[in-house]
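Sequence only, no structure available. Ideas?
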Amino acid sequence: MRSRLSLTALALVAGLSLSPAASLAQTSEDSQASKVLASGGAGFNVAAVQSLINRGDAAVAAGNLAEARKDYDNARAAAKQLLAFYRDLSGAFRGLDARIPREMDAKGRAALGLLAEANLRLAALFRRQNQPEVAVPVLVEVVRLMTPSQAQGQKAYQSLVELGFVETPFAAAKTAPGS
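Reply:
I predicted one. Tokens follow.
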């Protein structure tokens, strides 16, 4: 009995002593290579969404509106997926480890901002193509997501006024009353 206990303890100590050595042997380069989704414009992250928006902007500048629409649509879809995943992860860890929900909430806000930017670009593209009726739902989504108190929401609402979809202009308070 005593020898079995000693052998178990020895195996446990040997296993624990080898574990850190194995993890230390992994270089930071290996660690970065395994984080494929965190890479700049090719991963599944906010940088990749921004890259799609930038590609769409370049396509618009080159006059290739069909390619721009595809890039903006892909940016919108990726941003919506990221936003949902970040919210799910934030909720799953709420109350367990405050660091993870904070990180996911910050990433979610970044994804939300990029979703609004992609929507604004897509609405501008529809307006350029004389399709204002297609731009309206996209602009309304921006107002809903960002609220009229934020710059992107104000810009979307102003576009709705310019299109004639709404008539009442929104005068955002630049300064507090009595200032």
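The CA atoms of residues 29 and 147 lie 42 Å apart.
Hope that gets you unstuck.
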